[in-house]
Amino acid sequence: MANTPRLSKSNTPLEKRPVIVQILPALDRGGVERGTVEMAQAIEKAGGHAVVISSGGPLERHIVRCGATHHTLPVNVKNPLKWGSIRRKLQSILQDENAHIVHVRSRAPAWIALPVAKKLRIPTVSTVHGRFQAYSILKRIYNGKLVKVDHVIAISKYIKQLITSQFIGVEERMSVIHRGVDIDVFDPQAVNQTRIINFADSVALPEEMPVVMLPARPTLWKGHEALLDALALIKDLPFICLFVGAADGKQGFIDRITKHGVDQGLEGRFRLSHAVDDMPAALMVADVVVMPSITPEPFGRVALEAQAMGRPVVAFDHGGAVESIKHGQTGWLATPGDAESLAAYIRQALELQGPERQLLADKSRAHIERSFSTTRMCNETVKIYRRILQKSQVTTKG
After folding, report:
1. How many domains is the chain built from?
2. Does 2 map to a domain?
3. Edge-to-edge strand order for the sheet containing 313-316?
4. What is the pTM of this model?
5. Is residue 9 assigned to a domain?
6. I need a surface site. Which of 73, 149, 224, 364 has the fewest CB within 10 A?
7. What is the residue range of 325's domain?
8. DSSP states of 300-353 as a string?
9. What confidence tens digit (pLDDT) does each residue in 3-24 have?
10. Does 238 share its domain with 151?
């Protein structure tokens, strides 16, 4: 590619700005999607132009709002028979946008987009957000497409280890960039009392009752049953357990969680609510946030958000949680799958007194500001873009 520009903080003319294209399945409300929006904002701020290609979704308006461009294309399609026509449309978009880097964030978009980028000689980046679990050779081949790029970003050391244990020669072109949290949005000082009351009223929380919170997608591996098992061991304490997002699950999931809680003798002491738009306000009512995922989290953004809000966090000691929670300082890491260990740390969190709770809150907030802010995540990613653009420019001149 000729005349490859560099990302800078200056306001350069549009035609001289590097165009970074992020491609993901959809723009729903998950962590991958929010990270894409945050990077689009960072690219624009750094002097580039951000383009996002997806099948669309509720976060699409945030892409457009920051000055970026969104193209709707079914890059979430997993049927190879349909990839040919999608690739032709994608090629036209990349050429019209004069793309300088293609950044894929999921496997189906990688299979669709990377051959097009290679054909157009556009440098490529991928971010691996999930576990690389390969139960067959076909699944391993499918996963492997994400590492056939110029640079691979893993969202945690845990993910990096999974990748490097399966694919040889990737480590030298791989970086770990932890996902970040917006410390301006997730700031206890920025949440007024009205927002907190509105959330508490929306889920009918009883006043003055300690809240154990599990915010998660309605899927069993997130550990809803494990948390109920642990809470059954500390029924002597007052608490109400709130499963934020669980009410969005299928009826079978809801019935199973409800029955399990009742069988554990916790009837009336837990409730399932829908996902909320104002997560900072929701976290403000929590006395402890629990992340008892049965299988290791690739990273676990909930732990970041809770710590940013000064909430004690308890998680199992595996996966990405190990990298974000400082045991005994900003939260606790329980023995994986052990209800007694989980219960002991939840009890410890619920029994924190005022000065101890404030000290933990201060440490948690400082920890996130120092190591896990969105700004840090975006800056580290922009550095990778700069290096790739510089290398591309040298190659083109050569």
Report:
1. 2
2. no
3. 270-273, 240-244, 211-215, 288-291, 313-316, 331-334
4. 0.87
5. no
6. 73
7. 188-371
8. -HHHHHHHHTT--EEEESSTTHHHH--BTTTEEEEPTT-HHHHHHHHHHHHT--
9. 455 565 544 343 468 999 999 9
10. no
